[in-house]
Design a protein that fits this description.
CATH class of the largest domain: Alpha Beta
Strand content: 15-25%
Number of helices: 24
Largest sheet: 7 strands, parallel
Helix content: 25-40%
Structural class: alpha/beta
Number of strands: 20
Strand order of the largest sheet: 10-11-9-12-13-8-14
Radius of gyration: 31 Å
CATH superfamily of the largest domain: P-loop containing nucleotide triphosphate hydrolases
Number of domains: 4
CATH architecture of the largest domain: 3-Layer(aba) Sandwich
Distance between the termini: 36 Å
Shape: globular
C-alpha cells in the first residue's frame, strides 16, 4: 500500500520560520493563538471580496465594490480644518472616462502613486454631495509595473479573503502570511480523513479545500455563497470538524467498554425498579421509569455505565439519580454526588435523605472545617459514609474513598476537564451518571456527549403548575404595589434576581444591594432576604432556610439560585436587566417557581438600553414554556461554546461547522465515524489511516489526550 506521508514537520513548523514573518508579526500571531502552520491554516476568512478586473470607469455602479485599472492624472494633498489628518485627492482615468478618488491620512500615496502612474483600484463608489459627482473613497491600490504589467497577487486580480483584524495584524498583512504558508505546502497530498470515509461522503481533498477556503478559484457564485453549505471546500471542512469529534467519541466509548465494572446488582432491572417505586414518596412519570430502566440495564453489563440524563427544568432528575445510587449501595459501593454550588448540594443532601431512608447522606463543602472535616474525611476513607454529597471540595486530594462505585455529576458542564478527571479517578472504574437541568438541543447533546448513552426526561411530574412569562417595561413603585403586594397578601413568596451584587461604574445595571434596600423600605412589614455568591456558607444556608420556612417573603438574589432551589410557596420571580442573561439561564430561573401546586408568574424587566434583538430573545421565553425549544433558540443566538461551557471541556471547538445549520451533516458524520471505527479491524490500511488521523487530532486539538483519559 502506498500513502502520502504524514507531514508532521510541515504542519508543526513554527510561523517564525517564515522569512515574511519577523519577530513583531510573530508576537502578534501568538497573541491570536496562532503559533504553528496548522493553527494558521484553520484561521479562515469571514468574508471575501471580488477583486477581479471586471469594470471600466464608465461602467462603475454606485454603492458596490468594484475593481478596475486606471492612470493617475493628478494627485495632491488637501488640508481640511475639521479633520486631524489631511486628505489626499486624485483624478484617475481610463479610455472610458475619469473619476475622483479621495483617501484620509495616507500621505505616502503622494510618492507611491505619482502622476502618470497606472494602478489597480478596488473600492466603493459613492455620490458626493459636496462635489456633486461620483467619488471613489479610500480604495485599495496596487501599482502596475510598467515593464511587467498588472500581475495577479494575493491582494488583486482574484477573489481575496478578508480576515478579522486582531492583535495589530491588518487583513492585508494576514493575507500575505497565509499565502506564503500555503505556497510552502504546495502539492501536499496528505488527508487526515480515511479514504473510505472521504469517498463515501463525496468530499474534496484536504489541501485543495484548505487552499480554496483562503483563496477561492474562479467562480460565478456570489461572494456570500462561499460561506454557505453547497460550496465544496466549506462542505469538506464542516464534515471534517464533525467527523473528528465523532471519531473521538467512538474512541472514548471503546475505552469505556474495554474496562471492567466494580460491582454488580443483586436483582433484575424489573425487580430493582419495582422495589424502588414501592419505597419512593413520589409517583414516577413514564419518562422517569424509562430512564431508571435504562440505568438498571447498564448496571447489568460487563463495563461501567456512562450515561447522560437530559431533562427539562423540574422533570425529576434527582429521583432518577437516587434510583441509581440505591442500586450501587445495594451492590456494596459508595456513591458521590457532585453539585456546582453549596446551596444546591445542601438541597440534594436533604432530598436524598428522604429518597434513601436506609442511608444518611453526608455533606462535604468548603464550609465544613476543622475537627468536623477530619472526622468526615476519615469516615469516607473507611467506607462508613456511603452517600457523599458535595461541591468542588469532594475533588480535593485529601478526599479518599474506600470503594467508590457510582459518581453522579449535576450540572456537569459547570465543571472543567481536570475537575471531572479528579472525581472519576477516586474509584476503580466507577459508573458515571451526568445530568443537567439545562435543556440541551439534541444536536448539541449528540456532539458533545456522543460518548455517553442518553436518557431523556421529556415530561413533568404531576402537580407542576404552568408559569406565565411577561415582559414589563420597568419595575417601579407602581409595579411592586400592583403586581407584588397581592402575592404577599396571599402568603406566597417572591424571588427577585439581579445580575450584579453591588453598583458598578463599568456596568449600567441594577444591583442586589440597592434593590434589597429599596424593597425593605417599600414593604416595611415584610421580611426581605438577601442572597449572593460572596456570602459565607453558613450565612447563605441561614437565608435559604428562612426563605424555605416562609419567614422571608421576598428573596433578593443573584443567580446562585439558578438551579435546584425548591421553594413550594414561591409563585413569582422578577428578573431585572433580563437581557443580560442567556435564554437557557432565564429558563432555569423560571423553573424555580410553580413547583408546589401554585401557578407562577415570571416577570422579565429589561434595562433601559435594550435593543430590538434583546427584545426578540425575551419574546422567545414569553411565547414558549418548553425548555428544549428555548434551548434551540439559545444555541442559535450564542453558539455551543457559550451554551455548554465547552471552552473548558477539552473538546474541539468548531471553526466553520454550525450545529443548527449543519445538523444533517452532523448525523451523517456520526454514522460514518461509527462505521469506520467498527470496521477498522482487519483492514490492511487501518493502522496507517488511524495513526495519521490520531496524530492530526493531537496537532489540531492539544487537549485530546487529556479528554480521552477521563470519562
Amino acid at each position: 500500500m502506498t500513502a502520502p506521508p504524514f507531514p508532521r514537520l510541515k504542519l508543526t513548523a513554527p510561523l517564525s520560520s517564515f522569512p515574511s514573518i519577523g519577530p513583531r508579526r510573530h508576537a502578534r500571531l501568538e497573541r491570536r493563538g496562532l503559533s504553528t502552520v496548522l493553527d494558521l491554516l484553520y484561521c479562515f476568512p469571514f468574508r471575501y471580496e471580488d477583486r477581479r478586473i471586471r469594470r471600466v470607469i464608465a461602467d462603475l455602479e454606485e454603492g458596490t465594490e468594484q475593481g478596475f485599472v486606471a492612470t493617475v492624472r493628478s494627485i495632491r494633498k488637501k488640508a481640511v480644518p475639521k479633520l486631524k489628518a489631511p486628505l489626499v485627492e486624485a483624478t484617475i482615468f481610463d479610455h472610458s472616462g475619469e473619476i475622483s478618488v479621495v483617501w484620509f491620512g495616507q500621505e505616502y500615496l503622494l510618492k507611491h502613486l505619482p502622476e502618470g502612474s497606472q494602478a489597480f483600484f478596488f473600492g466603493k463608489v459613492e455620490y458626493s454631495a459636496y462635489s456633486r459627482c461620483l467619488v471613489l473613497r479610500s480604495p485599495v491600490v496596487e501599482v502596475v509595473d510598467p515593464d511587467q504589467g498588472l500581475r495577479r497577487s494575493y491582494h488583486i486580480g482574484r477573489i481575496v479573503p478578508v480576515y478579522r483584524e486582531e492583535a495589530g495584524l491588518t487583513t492585508g498583512v494576514f493575507r500575505r502570511i497565509v499565502g506564503d504558508v500555503l505556497r510552502s505546502l504546495w502539492g501536499e497530498s496528505f488527508d487526515p480523513l480515511p479514504e473510505s470515509v472521504r469517498r463515501e461522503a463525496n468530499l474534496m481533498g484536504w489541501f485543495p479545500a484548505i487552499v480554496e477556503m483562503h483563496f477561492p478559484r474562479e467562480t460565478d457564485r456570489p461572494m456570500e455563497e462561499l460561506l454557505r453549505p453547497g460550496y465544496p471546500p466549506l462542505d469538506r471542512i464542516v464534515f471534517e470538524e464533525f467527523f473528528l469529534l465523532e471519531y473521538l467519541m467512538m474512541l472514548r466509548r471503546q475505552g469505556v467498554h474495554r474496562s471492567g465494572r466494580l460491582w454488580s446488582p443483586g436483582a433484575s432491572p424489573e425487580e430493582s425498579l419495582s422495589d424502588f417505586e414501592r419505597r419512593s414518596p413520589f409517583v414516577m412519570t413514564a419518562a422517569q421509569r424509562r430512564s431508571c430502566g435504562e440505568i438498571a440495564q447498564d448496571f447489568g453489563r460487563p463495563h461501567p455505565m456512562n450515561r447522560f440524563l437530559l431533562g427539562d427544568v423540574g422533570s425529576g432528575k434527582t429521583l432518577v439519580a437516587a434510583f441509581a445510587m440505591q442500586q450501587a449501595l445495594r451492590g456494596g459501593c459508595q456513591t458521590a454526588f457532585l453539585a456546582p454550588t453549596e446551596i444546591l448540594a445542601q438541597q440534594h443532601a436533604r432530598t436524598l435523605a428522604g429518597l434513601l431512608p436506609d442511608e444518611a447522606p453526608v455533606l462535604l463543602s468548603a464550609s465544613v472545617k476543622g475537627l468536623d472535616r477530619r472526622r468526615l474525611l476519615a469516615g469516607i476513607a473507611e467506607g462508613a459514609h456511603r452517600v457523599v454529597v458535595g461541591t468542588h471540595a469532594i475533588l480535593e486530594e485529601g478526599v479518599v474513598f474506600s470503594n467508590l462505585g457510582l459518581v453522579v455529576i449535576d450540572e456537569q458542564h459547570k465543571f472543567g476537564v481536570a475537575q471531572r478527571k479528579a472525581l472519576w479517578s477516586k474509584g476503580p472504574n466507577p459508573d458515571i451518571l451526568v445530568m443537567t437541568a439545562t435543556p440541551i438541543p439534541r444536536s448539541l447533546a449528540l456532539s458533545y456527549y456522543g460518548d455517553l448513552e442518553i436518557s431523556l426526561l421529556d415530561e413533568l411530574p404531576p402537580g407542576r403548575q404552568p408559569v406565565e412569562t411577561r415582559i414589563v417595561s420597568k419595575a417601579d413603585e407602581g409595579f411592586w404595589k400592583k403586581k407584588i403586594s397581592p402575592v404577599l397578601e396571599r402568603a406566597e413568596q417572591v424571588f427577585v434576581v439581579l445580575p450584579l451584587i453591588e453598583e458598578s461604574e463599568k456596568v449600567d445595571a441594577k444591583n442586589a444591594l440597592d434593590v434589597h434596600a429599596f424593597l425593605s423600605a417599600f414593604f416595611p412589614g415584610v421580611r426581605v432576604g438577601l442572597l449572593t455568591g460572596r456570602m459565607a456558607g453558613e450565612e447563605k444556608e441561614s437565608v435559604m432556610e428562612g426563605f424555605r420556612r416562609g419567614e422571608i417573603a421576598i428573596l433578593v438574589s443573584t443567580t446562585v439560585i439558578e438551579v435546584g432551589v425548591d421553594i413550594p410557596r414561591a409563585s413569582v420571580m422578577v428578573v431585572e436587566n433580563a437581557e443580560r442573561f442567556g435564554l437557557a439561564q432565564l429558563h432555569q430561573l423560571r423553573g424555580r417557581i410553580g413547583r408546589g401546586g401554585l401557578p407562577g408568574t415570571f416577570y422579565l424587566v429589561p434595562g433601559e438600553g435594550m435593543g430590538e434583538e434583546g427584545r426578540r430573545r425575551l419574546k422567545v421565553l414569553e411565547e414558549y414554556s418548553d425548555g428544549f425549544h428555548v434551548a434551540e433558540e439559545d444555541l442559535r443566538l450564542r453558539g455551543p461554546g457559550e451554551f455548554m461551557g465547552v471552552k473548558q471541556s477539552g473538546l474541539p471547538m468548531f471553526v466553520v461547522a454550525d450545529l443548527v445549520r449543519d445538523a444533517e451533516v452532523l448525523a451523517r458524520s456520526r454514522h460514518l465515524a461509527s462505521a469506520y471505527v467498527e470496521g477498522a479491524e482487519g483492514r490492511m490500511d487501518a493502522a496507517w489511516e488511524q495513526s495519521g488521523l490520531e496524530e492530526f487530532l493531537r496537532l489540531r486539538y492539544r487537549e485530546v489526550d487529556v479528554w480521552l483519559s477521563i470519562r
